[in-house]
Design brief:
Length: 194
């Protein structure tokens, strides 16, 4: 009986791993390299966009903050909502609060969010007779968005810029780690963090 349950469990895991309904994709394309000397130790991350963008940026900001802390860089995060003419005034006020730079995430297009629920039934007939079945409920939240990302300061203007394109499962924490790693790697390559 135990071996049959083990076989069923392995079958469920293999099935759930192999049934990805879409391809997750994360790309970060640099549009402006940094050529100025600035060592950033305290940074403000600012996000804008829809409520879907906010949920994504809230989780991403927590991950970036954890990762930057390893490099002795502090990060504060503020969500502005939808960008309007007053947003630049808000950003300039924030910059005057002793931040070395500001990291801005501005959505380029409308966010696309699809939530799917699936129930799969697995079962087998054990040698002793009868039927053993298990229902597996799966939830995927497909999130598609494109962001303009820039980092700048008051004195030197834009230091670095990139476009982030994502098609991810919103609920998978590993995606936030991948995105954070890509952004921090590019910022280090551009000599913004040592």
């Amino acid at each position: 009986m135990k071996i049959n349950l083990l076989i069923l469990f392995v079958a469920i895991i293999i099935s759930s791993c192999s049934q990805n309904k879409y391809i997750e994709k994360i790309t970060l394309v640099e549009t402006q390299q940094n050529d100025k000397k600035l060592i950033v130790k305290k940074i403000l991350m600012v996000g804008a966009g829809s409520i879907e963008s906010r949920f994504f940026l809230d989780k991403l900001a927590m991950k970036i903050k954890q990762d930057l802390k390893k490099n002795n860089v502090e990060l504060d995060y503020n969500y502005l909502g939808k960008i309007n003419k007053d947003s630049s005034i808000q950003i300039n006020k924030m910059l005057n609060k002793n931040y070395d730079a500001i990291l801005v995430f501005n959505p380029v297009d409308t966010s696309n969010l699809e939530e799917k629920f699936e129930t799969e039934r697995y079962g087998y007939n054990p040698p002793s007779g009868g039927y053993v079945g298990v229902n597996v409920n799966k939830r995927t939240i497909k999130y598609i968005q494109r962001f303009d990302i820039s980092i700048y300061d008051n004195e030197m203007g834009t230091l670095w810029a990139a476009i982030l394109k994502i098609t991810i499962d919103y609920s998978k924490d590993k995606n936030y780690s991948i995105i954070s790693d890509k952004i921090i790697k590019e910022l280090m390559n551009n000599k913004l963090f040592l």
